[in-house]
Amino acid sequence: GTRGGAAAVMQFDSSTGRVRFAGVGNIVASLCDGDGVRGMPSHPGIVGVQFRKAQPFDFADAAGKLLVMHSDGLQSRWNLRDHPGLLSRHPR
Predict the structure, then answer these.
(1) Residue at 36 is within a domain
(2) How many CB atoms lie within 10 A of CB 65?
(3) I want to staple 19 with a disulfide (CB 3.0 to 4.6 A). Which of 4, 39, 43, 62 is the partner?
(4) Within a domain: 54
(5) Cβ(57)–Cβ(37) below 8 Å
(6) Among candidate residues 52, 54, 49, the one with its CA nearest the CA of residue 27
(7) Model pLDDT for residues 15-67, shown as the tens digit of each residue
């Protein structure tokens, strides 16, 4: 494998409920609610070394959803059902 940096930036507009997300490298991001999990794409590459331009992606229906972001330290095939009560937790 290779070593290098990965990064992600998420912007939430509380007035519209819209999320803008951009990620580079081994970053996983998902919007979760009672209906399921929606993955947010990240671009392949290494921050500062090997990637072109990080294109942001917009998600219009993010208000009230749980955002889960992680790098390769967690398994990318996690399951929300394995974490009962997570959706009802306050983000404090």
Answers:
(1) yes
(2) 20
(3) 62
(4) yes
(5) no
(6) 54
(7) 999 999 999 888 888 898 888 888 898 888 888 777 677 789 999 988 888 88
Q: Are strands 57-59 and 7-13 parallel, antiparallel or unpaired?
A: unpaired
Structurally, the chain folds into a number of domains equal to 1
pTM attached to this predicted model: 0.75
Indicate left, alpha or beta for 76 from its phi (over 0: left) and psi (-120 to 50: alpha): alpha
In a domain, 23, yes or no: yes
Residues 6 or more apart in contact with residue 30 via CB below 8 angstroms: 37, 38, 39, 40, 67, 68, 69
Residue 86 lies in a domain: no
Q: Which two tokens stand for residue 5?
A: 């940096």
Tell me the Cα Rg of the chain: 14
pLDDT value of position 41 = 87
Containing domain of residue 39, as a range?
Answer: 7-76
